[in-house]
Amino acid sequence: MAPFTRRLFLADVGRGMLSAGLGAGLALEFDLAPARAGDEPPPLHFGDLEPLVALLQETPPEKLLPQVVAKLNAGTGLKTLTAAAVLANARTFGGENYYGFHVFMALAPAYQMAAELPAARAALPVLKVLYRNAHYLHEVGGRKHEVLHAGVVPAGTVPPDALRKAVNAGDRAAAERLLATSGKTPADLLNAVLWPVEDNHDVHSAVLPWRAYSVLDVVGREHAVTLFRQSVRQCAKSCEGSKGKEAQLDAARAVVPRLLEEHVLPRAKAGTKQADDAWVERLSETVLASTPEQAGEAVAMALAEGFLAEHVGEAISLAANQLVLRQVENWAGRNAHGRRTHGDSPGVHASDATNAWRNMARVGSPRHQAAGLILAAMDAARSHGWTQPDKSSGYQKAPYPRPEDLHKVAATDAKVLLKELDGAVRENDQLRAMALAQTYGSRHHDARPVFDLLLQYAVSEDGRLHAEKYYRTVREEFETTRPAFRWRQVAALARVTASMYGFSQQDKQAGRAPGYEDACRLLRV
Predict the structure, then answer these.
(1) The domain containing residue 23 runs over which residues?
(2) What's the pLDDT tens digit per position in 39-56?
(3) Is there a single domain that holds both residue 121 and residue 158?
(4) Number of C-alpha atoms within 13 angstroms, CB side, residue 102?
(5) Which residues, 6+ apart, have CB-to-CB distance to 130 below 8 Å?
(6) Among 165, 379, 390, 179, which residue's Cα sits nearest to residue 292?
(7) CB atoms within 10 A of CB 398
(8) Nearest to 246 by CA among 199, 203, 192
(9) What distance in Å separates the CA atoms of residue 414 and residue 143, rounded to the nearest whole number?
(10) Fewer CB within 10 A of the terminal residue: the chain, N end or C end?
(11) pLDDT digits over 160-196, tens only?
(12) Are 426 and 496 found together in one domain?
């Protein structure tokens, strides 16, 4: 991979100046004065990838897949195609378009899913997401509506807090220029971005920087600034509507710093204390039973006591997983999805956010590791407070699958259980799907076949732009969760899969996920 250099920064950062929130004097001090009147920022250019990036931006969805498959057949690699899609999305949306950044966050998982599929079908998850990407690119006008542009990197150094202040003031241009001075490695940039993310955290602001970091192995680290610019712009945009809410925001932003100070975090030495199963279960239950601030404090206390951050994160992940397993069967949610558990259900959101925070905790600074785990716990606790439209609780006190559900599963053979699980998915029977997945695991069958089964539906179904992300979340959390609890993750994935099967048809769309059937036809699978 190409090294990070000042030349690459010069080709990769947008123009701008510091806002009134930082002050004009500070802007001049850091050489962040505005460009001369009439100057237009030059477009970002991606070198050898530029023709493919432009093709993806300019081609309408109904014409895209044949051209893309032709390129695959002519020797263009799936990695190259994914990289071009990532850059096309970032250049167009810049992290500000709601549907745009959802597609961006699905691209890395789609590419990772491709590696789990037979060679003939490997391109399907990427093609599915590319079709959705083209749909939203076309909606905004493709190259006519590019948010990210090239520009000039400011000289000198800036205070560590300047980026956060610029973002919280809603000044995108200043924030982008300050980001470019924040370090030479992707880890440096991630640590810089996490300051404003922590101040403006929600599921999207947490997941976006992790997906940007994780996809650098595909696009190349020389594009790290471009991808992280999305996060500062996303957070800055969210701050634009904060007029009149300053006191409320200040109070919310003060919680994590206060907990870090009170519990003297991060410690000079990382915790090494091993947590047993009972301890992990107790912390998970505490998170669910607490207010967001209490949940954050419980995590801070655990870290201060010296428990391994991995084990603390495991407990938070299991708490988020319980949101999926405890959701009432007929919970309607905000958008009247009926029995749906996928898409923007709180459990799926909290699980994806926790997975992102855990991953960023592994590569971020000790300070951001502690802050991120605190925020993950607060988010899971906050999600548990969601209610149905009639104000009743959206969650059962005990998780599915219940004893009566498990008792209905008579099969023990792996092949029979998989066949019945496939049927439960196709019948949208969430309770039976959970029971079958849990039984499969309790019989100590190989996990790969059940993931293969659920993977095919993560690819073929709509999933409300969450199918790819949540599948990868569960795959990763399964690997980092102890054997006593890991099959809970698979049971949750089985429920979500049963929930999303046929959703496109029920939403009066034709066929499976848009573009999927065309992709199958073109690949002849």
Answers:
(1) 6-43+149-240
(2) 678 899 999 999 999 999
(3) no
(4) 16
(5) 56, 64, 65, 68, 81, 85, 515
(6) 379
(7) 10
(8) 199
(9) 51
(10) N
(11) 789 999 999 999 988 999 998 888 899 999 999 999 9
(12) yes
